[in-house]
Write a structure and sequence with these properties.
By secondary structure, this protein is mainly alpha-helical. 50% of the residues lie in helices and 7% in strands.
Length: 145
């Protein structure tokens, strides 16, 4: 993430909503000095800061804010989506929608026969190794297989 371009995108957000640096800080519930330090280049934005911006301003796309990819403001259709449609998120959405994603873990159910077990094991050659959940308060949980 290019710090100068990130700062310019923050300025775009502040200007778009007709805010000052102080009112922007109040809206996302951070100290005014945090905004000053970010704008001057003294500090880098934390994950908590970025998540607060995304939470309070739904027109701000995460990828646009971090990398300048995408558009600001988002279209109304994109605002209603929780995840931007990328290769990664579409894979996550497919996995979440898959009825068999957690089939091996439901209620300690065991397959009735070896054929059923083979179907579970051969559905995919990909193996889940890590899941990270990010929460809107800036915290996260990490699960390793």
């Amino acid at each position: 993430m290019n710090r100068d371009l990130f700062i310019n995108r923050l300025k775009d957000i502040i200007q778009y909503y007709g805010l000052t640096s102080s009112t922007f800080a109040e809206k996302i519930n951070v100290p005014k000095s945090s905004i000053s330090h970010l704008m001057s280049g003294r500090n880098k934005a934390s994950l908590d800061f970025v998540l607060k911006v995304i939470d309070k301003f739904p027109d701000v796309d995460l990828y646009w804010l971090l990398n300048g990819e995408g558009v600001f403001p988002k279209s109304k259709n994109e605002v209603s989506n929780n995840l931007p449609q990328t290769k990664i998120s579409s894979s996550i959405n497919k996995a979440i929608d898959s009825p068999s994603l957690f089939s091996e873990f439901k209620n300690n159910d065991t397959p009735k026969d070896d054929t059923q077990q083979k179907k579970i094991n051969t559905k995919t050659s990909k193996k889940l190794i890590k899941v990270i959940l990010f929460y809107n308060d800036g915290s996260f949980d990490e699960f390793n297989k």
